[in-house]
Structure formats: structure tokens, C-alpha cells
Amino acid sequence: MASFKKRIIAVTAGSLLLSGALAACGSSDDNKGDGGGKSSGASKGGTLFFKVEDPIDHWDPQRTYVGTDISKQSRLVYRELVTFGDSDDPVESAKPIADLATDTGTSEEGGKVWKFTVRDGVKWQDGKPVTCEDVKYGASRNFATDVITGGPSFYVLSYLDIPADADGTPKYKGPYTKVGQDLYDKAVTCEGNTITYRFNKPWPDFPLAIAALHMMSPYRADKDQGDKSNYQIFSNGPYMLEGTWDKASGGTLVRNPEYGNDETDSRKALPDKITFQIGDKQETTYDALFADSGTAKCTVSDNRIPPSMFSQIPGAQDRYQNPESPYVDYLWFNTKKLDLPVRQALATATNREGWINAGGGDRAYIPAYSVVNPTVAGYKENPVYKDIPLAGDPEAAKKILSDAGVKMPYKLDLRYPQSDTADKQAAALKATWDKAGFAVSLSPEGDVYYSNIQKPDHNYDVGWAGWGADWPSPMTVLPPLFDSRANITSGSLGQDYGKYVGKDFNAKISEAQNSTDLDAQISALQAADDILAKDMVYMPLEISKFNWLAGSNVDFHVTPASNSFPDLGLIGLKGSC
Amino acid sequence: MFAFIVRRVIAGVIMLIVMSLVTFLLFFASPVDPAQFACGKNCSPAIKEQTRKALGYQKPAVEQWKDFMVGIFKGRDYPDDPALRKAAPQLVAHCPAPCFGYSVLNSKTVNEEIKRAFPITLSLAVFALILWLLGGVALGCIAALTKGSFIDRGLVGISLVLYAFPTFFIGLILLKFVSIKWGLWDKPEYTSIADGGVFSWLSNLFLPAVTLAVVFMAAYVRMTRAFVLEAMSEDYIRTANAKGLSKGRVLVKHTLRGALTPIVTMAGLDFAGLLAGAIITEYVFNFNGLGKLVVDANRTYDLPTIIGTVVLAATFVIVANIVVDLLYAVIDPRVRVA
User: Fold this and answer.
1) CA-based nearest residue to A139, from A172, A102, A106, A188
2) 0.80 cut: is pTM over it?
3) Are A558 and A321 in contact (CB under 8 A)?
4) CA triplet A34, A38, A43: central angle to 5 degrees?
5) How many helices (H) and strands (E) does chain A have?
6) How far apart are CA A82 and CA A475, in angstroms?
7) A73-82, B171-180, B325-334 — which is least confidently predicted?
8) Contact A154 B44 (CB under 8 A)
9) Which residue, among B28, B30, B42, would best test binding to A if mutated, counting the most A CBs under 10 Å from its CB?
10) Which residues of chain B neighbour A3 with C-beta distances below 8 Å?
11) Residues forming beta bridges with residue A464, ordered by sequence position
């Protein structure tokens, strides 16, 4: 859900805070601090302070693609046709529940048509009802790609049944120019309060997708000023903006008197006010949170505790949570340059244990056995990766190389976004790779990292990357990362950084895309992941873990539905500050 | 004098124009594609090109620079696409002259961003300037008047140590310990006089201003000491002393007047530099002034904000140079005569 290319300053190995995904591994009890994170005793009232280091890029629902921001919007100001509940159980929490709609939708034609009926009695903050036309208008904004930027419009554009121009873009150009409006009006229709979406291919988990991403969020046409509306929050949720939002410093949400008719249990709306404070450095925020005085007692943040402060955690264990994130970090191999035995040897000698320890240990990571996160539907540990020792097996790797007649030492370079932590982690990989018969040079890069590894003519050997599912489906992991048809063009590799072109893999993806049944789709994708492992296209490294600390007056909740970020729908205060 | 001012102003304007062009060219020479950067995940080539258009980067750099210059003199309307503006007038953001551009990433004109950020930076710079000039000049004079004594050596030594401290170190120490850990001073959060009154404004500015002032003050102590000592060895000072003038009168009326010329030069330029943004201090204390605006713009590849702040910063420096030249004449009669 987020661009992890956007804020390159934050893109470090193992630090994908800004890459989004909804499929979050839950904060199951064994992930929490000793005191558990589910304290109780919160009552209505008070002001909660929410600290964010970097400015929030968008409050416009159609432009929002960062997991934590999507969660904030869902819980506080924007209601969706369907949403996620408040369960601690990752499986349960990944089931959409009716929100604006009366139910979770009905599909026809094998998932190519979806219908939802908009619930009566839901109002915008000005008292006007949320209508089917508002929902239809919201989806139309995705097509104005020269105004509504940064969001997950990719899915709407590729799925809605609207003919394409010669350049592959839909003939409908959005609600501002209205070019091709008749085509959109055929693909999305309102009859009374029932909205119907018609797709060009089956979308069996469409409700899951729109619970996770806000591309279909309702939007009032008379409030739409394009880019100027980016920070003009117009709410139909429990809170609304007081005054204006300042990108640099934040704003305050207060209760929306028109909010109602919400049958979900995910918007407790306990604090009277939520004040967003933007800009304090992560270290400053956590200095205050560990000190736990003044307003820090009523503060939460969606910036992780810096590893340098991990040593202070035992003293604040009752306010601490350590859930798994929805992200998986992995190594990609250049399949056009490195032969299969070389890739297999690299994978075999990969020291995941060293990588994890250099990056902060078990508070920061757990090992990964697939590029798919365990909370994604149909996840299975891939035996190819499971069988490789966590510390790597340089001897076995050396044997693979010598059996294949590969001349040693085999020179190669490892690319990664530079940071002090990433340098140490890369050094851990180099150590075992060198033992296996490689001569590895480390090539850290700055802001240009993603630009470089996406260049079709790059000649790199191995590189780091990370990913999180857009919604808990492997369809939002494997095709975006390895389907050459969707990624590789004359100008870019997309996310297929290793230039992988796998006919069998692509065939399995096609099979999954055309499946009208979710089980069949998942089965095809599991087979696709097996092909990737057989071809040794990537090597999973770890699943990063979040480290959160709240003030002592905060009734602190982190749920899978909030992407393992603090869940503002449930958090309340146990006292004032 | 008038001709001198005109010459300096024309040279300054030319410098600004060249600087803006160079900034445009440098921005687009960067290997990072700003459209890719703003596009988000799953960014297809078609969507990336549309994002480029939304950001206004689809035209050649020189053409964009020309549009920028037109905006400076005539103002501009956004989005750039006239057909889109005509079809959807509700999208239009008007940016009156002198228009520094519209930042799609911040969803407002650069002028609005500067208008928001500048008072914060100005407040900080003025407060810091007062602190370091008062402290620096006073302590420098004391050191000069007590040359060779324990006081002199102590002041010079402490200045040297403080001068060696980087701003971020002093800022972090004040923030982390004085404010957060020991609770001796509330954590600074900029409050305007209109919002919180003069006392709140001053108390919130105090720690950041001290952070800036300490480093500058250390330099000014040493500089003032040196210039005062130099002035004290001049014949006219000996004459003033021989006339029986009081020590204070000799110091204020004669010695400092001669010594102040280079100090005013430095202060003017330092102040102008600060007006362009006290980047580190603003970042450490989370003051959303021009310095933080510049850093955020660079971090997100926000060309309109980068170019707007670069031109503004350059303007401050150029204007400060001109003002300092004029002040010479006021402070030092010898310059006027020359």
C-alpha cells in the first residue's frame, strides 16, 4: 500500500515502515510485552496525542497507499463499503465485515460483477446522507491519474470493464474532464442505493481488496477540488477535522456529531480529541515516551522504537508491544546474469541469522521462509527455504559451485540501500558467501537505489528488497514482484528487479488471475511460489517486527486490521494528561 | 551612492535568475526520477507518466524554468494543463505574482508554504541574533579590556570549546536533557504571538535560539576581542585617551565604532543565512521554519518548493550584502568619505 520508494531516506534494510500492506501479522499474545498490550480501563474522553515523524502524504482516500494511514482513515474519518473488525486473530480479522454497505457484497458471473447496497442513515459531517452516487464518484476519481496521484488506482484501472486506448490506459479519463464518462457509467451503476461494479476479469476477493485499500471510498463531488482537497478531510466517520490540517505540524480531530448507524465494532471512538503532532524525530518521541511525563502519558506513535533504545524496553514492558509487521524482506538474484547453480549456492550460503542479529535481533525480525507473509491467505513455508540452515551452509554451497564447474572465487556485488544497520547486515551475508567460494563486494546506494535496480539494463548481481501485500492475498505479492508481463517494459523492470521471465510461473499466475474461486486461485499461487523456489529467483530473509511503546495513560491496542500499527479505533485513555 | 545601489541590485537580480536556472538544471540532472518517487507502489509506466504530468515535470527543464520566471512576474494558475483547468475550474489554484510555484506534494502554493514558515524562521533568527550579538560583543569587549588576564583566557578558552560544538549536539543536549529528561524547560513548540502571547512566544523560542546563539556567540567573542584590540592600538584611540575622555566613552564612542564594521558585516551575512533557514536547529526542535521546509522538499524531490526556497534564500543573502555595504557608511565615516 505504500511506496517504499517514496521516502528513500527511510528505506533501509529491514526498515520498511513506509511500505504498506494490510496483511498484518497479528499481535498475538506471545508477541506482546510481558504485561500484554491489551490493558483495559479506558473510558470515553480526554485528548490522545499521536506522534508522527514524517508528514502524512495524503488524507485523500483515493490517494492513500500507506498502511498506517489507511488504518487511521478507516477507524477515524472514512467509512468503506466493507472494513475489517477488531479481532486479535489474524484469520478472523482478515474477513471483511459490512460497514457502509448492508452486507459484504454479492458476486455474479464468477466474480466479474459485484453488488453492494449502501446503508441508509449514514451521513457526512454536514448532515447530508452518504449515497450510492458518492460511492460511484469516489471510484471514478482513480481514473484522473494526472490529478489523483500516489494511490492504488492501478487495481481499479486494470479491473473495471472499460475499454483501453492504444497506450493501454482506460478510455475513461476521470470525473474532471469527463472524457469517456459513458464508458464508466456502464461499468459502475447505481440503482437506488445499490452499486454494481463490472470487471473485465474475475475478482473473487474484491471485498477484501476494498476493505484494505480506499480506492472505492465514497467522495462527495461538490467537495472535490482535486489536489487542493488532499488535506481537506470531509468525514463520515466518528471524528472530523477541527480547523485545518497542516502538513508540517498536523491537526486535531474532534467528534463528528453526524456520525452514526455503524454496526461494526472497530470504531470505539473513545478519546474526545485526537491531536496529531508531526515532525518530532523518532528518538525525541521515544525519549519522551520512555520518560512518560506530561502529555507523553497520553501519547502513541506509529514510528518504531529505534534499535538504539531497545535496552530501555524492559523498564517499560507493560506499555510495549512487539507484533510482526506485514512486510517480508528478501534478496533478488539477477536471473539473466547468474546461472541457476550460482543462485542456489548463494541461497544455500545465505546467513539469515547473521542478518537478523546485525539488524537488532529477535525484537526486530523473525526469519522468513517465503516472500509471502504468514498472514496472507494460503501462506505456506516453502520447504526449499525452510531446509536451508538459518546460518547458511557455506560448505554445501561450495559443493554446488564445484559440481557445476563454476570457477571460484566467483565475483559478485550485493546492492542495498545504505544505512549503518544495513552495512552490518550486508557484511554478515558477505562473510558466509565468501566462505562458499564467492568474492563479494558490497555496493550500498543512496536515494537512487530503486531507480537503479529498476533499470532494464542494470548489470547487478544480487540486491535487497522488501514487500508487503496490499490485501491478504498472494495475488498482491507474487504477480507484482515476479510476473514479467506485468513488470518488464522497455523503460523499467517494475518490481521484477532480478529480470525473471518464467513461462511456467507466468502460466500459473494467469491461472490464478482467471480463477473464479479463491481456493483455486490460492492453489495456483502456491504452485507459482514453488516454481520461484525451484528457479531460485529470490531468497527470503526475514519478517520485520514492530516495536511500539505507548504512554502510561493509554489503553493500547494493536490489531492485525490496523496493519499491526496502533489501532486508533480501539485506543482509549485511562486518565487525562 | 545611488548608482552603487542600482548596480548592486541589477547584479543581484542577474544572480538570482542564473541561480534559479542552475537549480532547475541540477534537479533534473539527478538520477532519481521524482515521478517514480511520488508515484507509489505498483506504478505502471503509464501511471508514472501521468504522475509526472501532475507534478508538472513533463516539459523540458528550460521550458519549466521559463514558466517559473513568467510566474514570478505574472503569476500562474495550476494545474498547468489549460484543458483541465477549463473542464474543471474547481481544481484551479491561483498563484499571484510573484509566484514561486505550486507544490503538488504539499497541495498548496510555495508562496503559502513560505508565508507559513517564514515567521518561525524570522523569530528564531532575530532572537538568536540579539543573544549572540549582545553576548558576543559584550564578552569580546571584556576579554579585550582584560587582555592576558584570567578572565580573558577563560572567555577565549570557553569560546573555543563552544565554537567546536556542532549545533545539532547543543540542540540535542538541550532538548533531551534540559527539556525532556530533567524537565527544566518545557519542550519548545513554536507559538506565534497571536496564538500564545509574547511570553509564550519567547519561552518557546528560547532553547532553539540559545542553540544557535551559543555557536555564533563563541565566534563573535573571539572576533570582537580581536577587532577591539586592534582598534585600541590606533592613534585616534591614544588621542582620545590623552584628551582625558572616560574609558567608557573611549570604548563606546571610538573603539567599538571602528571595531564594529567587520562585526556588522559578519552579523548581516550570518543573519541572512539564518533567514534562509536554521536547518539543523529547526529540525532538532521540530520548528517548521524555512530550514525544515527546505530539507523536507529535498527529501521528497519537491522541485517547486526547492526552487522557491533557493531563490528566497539567495535573495536574503544578496539583500543582506547590499544592506551591510550601506551600513558601513553609517558606522564608519571613513567609508563615507571614500
Assistant:
1) A188
2) yes
3) yes
4) 140
5) 17, 21
6) 20
7) B325-334
8) yes
9) B42
10) 37-41, 43
11) A331
Of A167, A293, A447, the CB nearest to B46: A167
C-alpha cell at B74: 505574472
Q: Which chain B residue has the Cα nearest residue A60?
A: B107
User: Is-cis flag, bond preceding A306, omega within 30?
Assistant: no
How far is A526 from A339, CA to CA, in rounded Å?
A: 24
Average pLDDT over residues A279-293: 94
Chain A residues touching B45 at Cβ < 8 A: 489, 491-492
A332: CB partners within 8 A, 6+ apart: A462, A463, A464, A465, A497, A498, A537, A538
Length, in residues, of chain B: 338
Neighbouring C-beta atoms of residue B11, cutoff 10 Å: 13
Contact (CB<8Å) A492/B93: no
Nearest to A547 by CA among A329, A355, A288, A323: A323
Cell digits of residue B287: 520548528
ipTM metric: 0.85
CA distance B269 to chain A (A): 28
Q: CA quadruple A280, A281, A283, A284: dihedral positive or negative?
A: negative
Mean pLDDT (whole number) for B151-164? 92
pLDDT number for residue A4: 35
Cα(A148)–Cα(B40) distance, rounded to whole angstroms?
Answer: 12
Residue type, B85: R
Q: Are A274 and A239 spatial neighbours (Cβ–Cβ below 8 Å)?
A: yes
* Domain boundaries defined on chain B: 2-111, 116-300
SS3 B126: helix
- The length of chain A in residues reads 577
Out of A3, A157, A247, whose CB is closest to B40? Answer: A3
* CB atoms near residue B18 (< 10 Å): 11
Identify the CA nearest to A449 among candidates A439, A460, A436, A434: A460
Grid coordinates representing B83 are 484543458
Hey, what's the cell of B267? 552579523
Give the three-class secondary structure for B41: coil
Domains of chain A with CATH codes: 61-230 (3.40.190.10), 324-545 (3.10.105.10)
List, in sequence order, the alpha helices (H) in A263-351. Answer: 282-291, 340-348
Distance, CA of A135 to CA of A122 (rounded, Å): 12
Task: Say if CB A548 and CB A558 are below 8 A apart.
Answer: yes
Cis peptide before A417 (omega within 30 of 0): no
Distance from CA of B226 to the nearest CA of A (A): 40
In angstroms, what CA-CA distances link A449 with A18, A443, B110? 16, 10, 29
- Residue A353 CA to residue A280 CA, distance in Å, equals 33
Q: Among A439, A458, A437, A438, which residue's Cα sits nearest to residue A449? A: A458
Distance from CA of B90 to the nearest CA of A (A): 5
Architecture of domain B116-300: Orthogonal Bundle (1.10)
Q: Helix, strand, coil % (nearest 5) of chain B?
A: 80, 5, 20
Check B31 against A448: CB less than 8 A apart. Answer: yes
Considering only CB atoms, B54 lies closest to which of A147, A155, A448, namely A147
Give the model's confidence band at B336: pLDDT under 50 very low, under 70 low, under 90 confident, else very high.
low
Contact between A345 and A338 under an 8 Å Cβ cutoff? The reply is no
